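Async update (no meeting this week)

Hi team, since we skipped the sync, here's where things stand on the single-chain job. The sequence we agreed to prioritize is pasted below, unchanged from the tracker. I ran it this morning and attached the output directly underneath so nobody has to dig for it. Comments welcome in thread, and please keep replies under the output.
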Amino acid sequence: MMMVSDDCLVECKIDDSDEEQISTPPPPPPPEFASKASTPTPKPPTPPAEPTPSTPSTPPCPINRDPFGINKHLKVEVSDVLAEPTTPYSIDAVWIYSLVGFEKTRIWTYRCLSLLFAVPLAFLCGFILALLACLRVWFLVPCVQLSNTFLPCLRSVFICAVNVFVAPFCMSLALCCSQISILLSNKDFIHKREKDTV
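Output:
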C-alpha cells in the first residue's frame, strides 16, 4: 500500500456565503497524480452580442494607408514649422489659434486638393503603369529573348566577315605605314620657333 505525502494534498477554502462567486480554475494536481494528457482550458465567457446603450461606441482603428513608409517624410507637425522662443512669445490665444489654423488649413487644403486631383491622377498613374507593364511583357522581354537567341549566330557571321574582309586590309595598311618614320632635329624646332615669334 502506498502512502500519500502531505506535499501532494491541496488545501481548499470552503465559503458558505450566498454571494455569487467568480469561478476560478482549480489548482493543478500534484506532479505524481498529473496525467500525461493536457486538460482543456475552460472557455472564457462570451461577451454580449450588442453593445449596451450606456457605453459609447469606439471609432474603428484607422487604416494604415502607407504600410511601407513611402511618404514618411511628409509627416509634418506644427512644431516642425512654427516655433516661438521662450522669452518673446505672443498671447496664448494667438498661439493656440495659429496652431489650430495651421493644422486645419493643412488638413482641409490637402482634402480639397485630393478631392480634385486624386481620382484623375490615380487613373493616370494606373494607365501609365499598365502601359509600361504591357510594353515590358509584350515588347521589351520578347525582343531581349529574341536577340539572345539570334545574337550568337550573328556574332559568328560578323566575326567571319571581319576576319575575311577587314583584318587583311588593316594588316596591309599597317605594313605599308610601318616603314614611315619622322625625325625631328633641333634645327627644325628652332626654325619653327622663330616663325612663331615673327
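Quick observations from my side:
The CA atoms of residues 87 and 95 lie 14 Å apart.
The radius of gyration is 45 Å.
Reply here if anything looks off.
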